[in-house]
Design brief:
308 residues, 3-stranded antiparallel β-sheet, 14 helices, 6 strands, globular
Length: 308
């Protein structure tokens, strides 16, 4: 049953609602790229975070742990456990800086260097899958818009892309930069949701129910899972806040349905403009025509990856 209140959301705000909003779609694309890459790295007992470390060292061996940590932090990772596991695998070694003993530097072993011949072709394959049907000139535009969004969200100048072989490696490759947008966008949105004691996952649930109230938990769970969330705790907290209520399906008692309360309905007046402000900041300097093209390319990449 469609919510009787859905039509009260202005048309220009409806396009921001999950799962159609550009923020949700970029997050979904990031999740899909990460999953595909993880699947391909599993035979080597590596993760995308290990890939980032290797990319750093292939480009400049002997980097300080702080430098590598900055790269990992950009995409939501930390050094905790990552370097330990790579050291145990014999892919890297740690040495103190000869001039400043407080600094630890990370060096590739021979095994770590050998992966340089194996892993970049896997990254190429995933990139080509995601960008199938998008021409090379279009890819350059796609890449440029990604960099401009990162600059908007991070309040820093747009990065200069690398050419040739290094374009396959973090921090220049598509997957890494899409992940940065997803991470930055989530952080900025969380900052704006903090006053309401909500998270981006709560936003996804509300968006689902504003568009169709009384959805089954499984339907909402699928939307959360797409962008890396689970129902664990999310619905409980929203119920405690009085934003939703749970009821058993009248036709199938095994199914629980989620309904908005009056407080949850009222949030649709408050939160969409918050999402609109963030979207406008992220897309500053990107024309309406470019935004439409970007949305098309992101959706095409998602389709390409989900068809695999």
């Amino acid at each position: 049953m469609l919510s009787s209140q859905t039509e009260q959301i202005p048309a220009n705000l409806k396009r921001l609602l999950a799962p159609h909003g550009i923020g949700y779609r970029i997050k979904l694309l990031s999740q899909l790229l990460g999953r595909r890459f993880q699947e391909r790295l599993e035979p080597y007992k590596l993760t995308p975070f290990h890939w980032v470390v290797l990319c750093c060292l292939w480009q400049e061996d002997g980097q300080a742990t702080s430098s590598i940590g900055d790269r990992l932090q950009q995409v939501g990772g930390t050094l905790t456990g990552v370097l330990d596991r790579m050291s145990e695998r014999g892919l890297i070694r740690r040495e103190r800086d000869v001039q400043d003993r407080r600094i630890w530097r990370i060096w590739l072993t021979e095994a770590g260097q050998q992966l340089e011949d194996i892993l970049p072709p896997i990254a190429v394959e995933i990139r080509e899958t995601a960008l199938h049907g998008i021409s090379y000139p279009e890819r350059e535009q796609y890449s440029d818009m990604i960099d401009r969004m990162i600059a908007n969200l991070s309040n820093s100048p747009a990065a200069t892309n690398s050419d040739g072989w290094q374009a396959l490696l973090a921090p220049y490759n598509l997957g890494y930069r899409i992940k940065i947008i997803a991470q930055l966008g989530t952080r900025r949105f969380q900052e704006r949701l903090d006053p309401y004691e909500l998270t981006p996952f709560h936003w996804v649930v509300l968006c689902c129910l504003w568009q169709e109230d009384g959805q089954a938990t499984s339907e909402i769970g699928e939307k959360l899972q797409q962008v890396g969330g689970t129902l664990t705790g999310v619905l409980d907290r929203m119920s405690e806040r009085g934003l939703i209520r749970r009821e058993r399906d009248i036709h199938d008692r095994r199914i629980w349905r989620i309904w908005l309360t009056e407080a949850g309905e009222q949030m649709k007046i408050t939160l969409p403009p918050v999402a609109m402000a963030l979207s406008q900041m992220m897309l500053t300097g990107i024309s309406i025509e470019e935004q439409a093209t970007l949305s098309e390319w992101v959706n095409r990449s998602i389709t390409n990856l989900t068809a695999v």
